[in-house]
Amino acid sequence: MRTSLNVPDDLLSRFDDIWQEQGLESRSRGVREAMREYVEAHTRLEDVDGDIVAIVAFDYDHESVIEDLHDIQHEFQDVVTTTTHTHEGEWCLETVFCRGAAERIRTFAYRLRDFDAVRRVKLLLLADR
Fold first, then answer.
1. Which CATH number is 46-128 given?
2. Stated pTM of the model
């Protein structure tokens, strides 16, 4: 589908610089990717049904909650596919890759938020089917 847009010159210039630096073959390809990212960023997990692929990232105080977090990850092993773990000062940072029913992944993310020792939980929806 062809469309036209009114875009400020400075924004278009910066956009052109970026898609060319990234080696994309055209402005149209850059616009499609930007639109896809915009839709993904504004799709709320609560509005998604069916199977999804998502990343859940969170940070926490290790001493206070590690055993509980391991228990939850085991409880949700039907949707947890991979985890990574690193340290930032006194805090642990964890990234959990998930695939499966949106309802299960939602529940997993909400359960992580239940702990006072978990500072923040961020979810990135990568694909919904």
1. 3.30.70.1150
2. 0.70
